[in-house]
Amino acid sequence: MRGADYVVKRTAFALVTIFVAVSINFVLFRLAPGSAVSNLSRVPHATQELRQALKRQFGLDKSRGRQYLIYLEQLTRGNLGVSFENEQPVSTNLKTAILNTLPMVALGTLFAIVVGTLTGVIAAWRRGTPIEGATVTTALGFYSMPTHWLGLMLVILFTGILPTGGMTNDFLINPSFWTHARDVLSHMVLPSLTLGLVLFGEYTLIVRSAMLETLGEDYILTARAKGLRPWAIIRKHALRNAMLPIVTLVALSLGYIVAGAILIETVFSWPGVGRAVYDAVLNRDYPMLQGAFLFLTISVVFFNLVADLLYYKLDPRIT
Amino acid sequence: MRKRWSAVLILGTAVGVLLASASGAGGSHSKSGGTFRLATSSGIDSLNPYVAFNQDAYSMFEYIYPLLVQYDKDNKQFVPDFARSWTTSKDGKTWTFTTVAGAKWSDGKPLTAADAAWTINTDIKYKGGGAANAAGLIAHIRRAVAPNPTTLVVHYAAAPGNVLGQFQQFAILPKHVWSKHLGHKGADLKTFPNNAPVVGAGPFKLVEYKKNQIALFQRNDSFFGPKPQVDAFGLRIFSNDDAMVSALKAHEIDAIEAVPATAIKTLKSAGFTITQVPGVDQTDFIFNSNPKKKTHRELLNLKLKEAFAHAVDRDQIIRVVFLGTAKPADSIVPQATGWHNPQLKPESFDLGLANKMLDQLGYKRGSGGVRVANGHKMAYDVITPTSVQSTSRTFQIMQASFAKIGVQLRQKALDATTAFDEMSGPNGKYLNFDLALWDWVALIDPDFMLSVVTCAQYGGWSDSGYCDKKYDRMYSQQQLTPNQDKRRALVWKMQKYLYDRRPYVWLATQDSVDALSPKWTGLVPSPQGPFNSLSKVSLTSVHQK
Amino acid sequence: MSVVLHEPGAVADPEPVPSRGGILWNTIRRRPSAAVGAVVLSLVVIAAVLAPWIAPYGLHDQVGPVFGPPSWSHPLGLDDGGIDMVTLLVWGARISLVVGFAATLVSMIIGGAIGVLAGYFGGKTDSILMRITDYFLVIPDVPLMIVVAAIWGPSLFHIVIVIGILLWTSTARVIRAQVKSVRERVYVKRARSLGAGHARIVFRHVLPQVAPLLIANTVLTIAVAIFDETALSFLGLGDPSRVSLGKVIENAFQRAAISSGAWWAIVPPGALVAVVILSCSLIGGALEDALNPRLRVAHVSARTFRLRPLVGRSDSSL
Question: Fewer CB near the last or first residue (10 Å), C or N of chain C?
Answer without folding.
Answer: N
